[in-house]
Amino acid sequence: HLVFGNIPGSAFYPEPEVRSAILHMGEIQEKYEAIGASGLTERALWKLIRAGFQNRRKMLKNTLATLPNVSGTVVQEWLQSHEYSPHARAQDIAPHHWIDLAHQFFDESA
Fold this sequence. Notes:
- By secondary structure, this protein is mostly helical.
- The protein is 45% helix and 9% strand.
- The chain has helices at 26-35, 42-54, 60-64, 72-81, 95-106; strands at residues 2-7, 20-23.
- A two-stranded antiparallel ribbon has the order 1-2.
């Protein structure tokens, strides 16, 4: 969830030309720990989340498609099956759904 929004670029060095926000991702970590020994590594989960938020103005299906073994078409199908817009961006995805999305591409037990 959003902890603090609208942080000006002057709060960073070097100063970016964008505003930032601080997010608390604890819900994702708690759910990951609760599912225990699934086929999803924590590293793979955070790799997916990081990729999604690196270009937050781009649609999720495009940002995630830059990862190996990730298909933009499959991301779009997943979004629609979870009642998200096919044009959704990383910030539109509920925290608990990130684990479900990561299972789509990185579950080693499948």
